[in-house]
Amino acid sequence: MQETARAAITDDDLFALRWDRGRRDLTGPIRRLYGESIDANAFLDRLKLLLQWHWRERPADLRLLDLTRDLNPDWFLSEKMVAYVFYIDKFAGRLANLPAHIPYLQDLGVTYAHMMPCLKPRPGANDGGYAVMDYREIDPALGKMADFQQATLKFRAAGISPVIDMVLNHTAKEHDWAVRARAGDPFYQAFYRMFDDDTLPRAYEETLVEIFPAHAPGNFTFYPDMGKWVWTTFNEYQWDLNWENPEVFLAVLDTILFLANKGVEVFRLDAVAFMWKRMGTGCQNLPEVHDLLQLLTQSTRIAAPAVIHKAEAIVGPSDLVPYLGTDTHAGKVSQLAYHNNLMVQYWSSLASGDTRLMTHVMKTHFPESFRRASFAPYIRCHDDIGWAITPEDTVHIPHMDAKAHRDYLSDFYNGSHPTSWARGADFQVNAETGDRRTNGTFASLAGLEAAVEADDPALIEAAIARIRLGHALIAAYGGIPLIYMGDEIGMTNDHSYLNDPGLADDGRWMQRPAMDWTAAQARTGPAARIRADLKHILATRKATPQLAGDVPTRVIVTGHRALFVWQRLGDDRSVTCIANFTGQPQLFRVADADILPDIDLLTGHAPEIAQGLMTVAPYACLWLR
Ligand code: GLC
């Protein structure tokens, strides 16, 4: 018998294998994005060197994590995953204090910790940290890179994946690249979108939408010292990067891999919809964006396979789907994407007590599953709610008009509608279209603030039930539910930002209160109830394999106006979820979902069915198996 040589596998062998596996997913996008403008082979060589360099720098513990995830690439789809999203300063003060709060997160069941923008921002106004001046340094107000690394180690040891924002549509105008560009360096001027006069900017403006029409109107800014117009989609101090320049891709990838080697496991790719621009379009969701995301994701997968990406594209339903990979991009772009449409539909159904639009939108636009990707469903986040409701969908609902419904939701959630229980506020009223977005915390929009003020136990009960419904929805819909800091204890709107001149013009600070640790310790009252409800929901989720992200989600059309029904189609058994969006009990015909359930997983009881009808309590969400 011949003896097999047992040579050790080296890190370079591993890299070579990963490069071979990944390069075929790089060449298509490179050709489509950069075409004749570059020598594709020379570019691939540079990319390979960059990836190899970072791979060699990668710490041993992270290389072990890479191997673990090579073997279990579906790790992020597990039903055990639960995300918590927070500002380091508002949650813990500084980075160094963060590990002390890990037990609190573990008690909730958290396995994914999104630390809101924490890289070094520009001084002064910085859009909540989304105007980054240095991607390789931590915001000095929070600590140093060493503190950050310490925190990532502690998180990982506790089974929690560290997550940060990667702002890649723009940098602060104080970023080194922008400073050099402004000083006249042509190499760095090509990193941004600059124009010598306003001819092109004016032509682009014809079809662009306004993101901050109220506090930062226009998409371009003129700098007299440079004599140039710069593309500034968001605020004046956020300069849009020019992703048509392959050097931008290499420079941003370099930063991502640098941070990955500091222990980041998930990058939240900020405002990705805007990355590519084309004259005559709205410059959002262009097909090139998906090539860029494939290039970023597949490159990261070669040099840091443990790392995944979450796309932040807050767009309409049909534009959202490709962010999880369709057609040739299936399984190759961002592994996660915010489900802003589920969020919008939750609020829409709750206000009107009518789920028909929700059922239509969720059923017609979204596939039951994606290849190796899933959503990050949520109810609230640090941003405003944009009412992504289009005529394309409302036309299917009798007597519903898209604009009228958007106006209704704005009025309902700013509290001015006569039937409203909500406390919120309009945001970025668009003078041209009349559209208004909405600010407010989960609890305030769900009625808790007004109910507590009125000291009315029945109203408090209803508000707590609406919050429970939202949490049960995102925990069972599919993907990783995102719990936004303070929502687990029903924190209400915070108006203190109005006293800070640097923040006062941005109403989104209303939903960014500092963590109320006293309320978090409470044993009775609404905060304690909401937290106990959520803990129970998350624990039940973790014990239910049918709720994993790779189990298909099928929306069931029952025709019942008050109920939203969906099924998680497990291999052997399915779970059917029924959510009642009204404050009245509703009767559900079990034949409509073709089920004979033994148990409601959330209550642990067998559902009572009489003559084929089941009662669904006000604002209840049943998880039937
Ligand atoms: C994302 C962020 C938002 C920010 C914008 C610009 O949408 O969530 O807070 O203003 O990007 O970076």
Could you characterize what this model shows?
- The chain is an alpha/beta fold.
- It has 21 helices and 24 strands.
- The strands form 7 sheets. The protein has an 8-stranded parallel β-sheet with strand order 14-13-12-11-5-2-1-17. Strands 18-19-20-24 form a 4-stranded antiparallel β-sheet, with helices on one face.
- β8 and β9 form a beta hairpin.
- The termini are far apart.
- 51% of the residues are buried.
- The mean pLDDT is 96.
- Bound molecules: alpha-D-glucopyranose.
Distance from N terminus to C terminus (CA atoms, Å) equals 55 Å
Number of helices: 21
CATH class of the domain at 553-624: Mainly Beta
According to DSSP, the number of beta strands is 24
Strand content: 15-25%
Name the poorly predicted regions: none
- Overall pLDDT: 96
Pairing-aware structural class of the strands and helices? alpha/beta
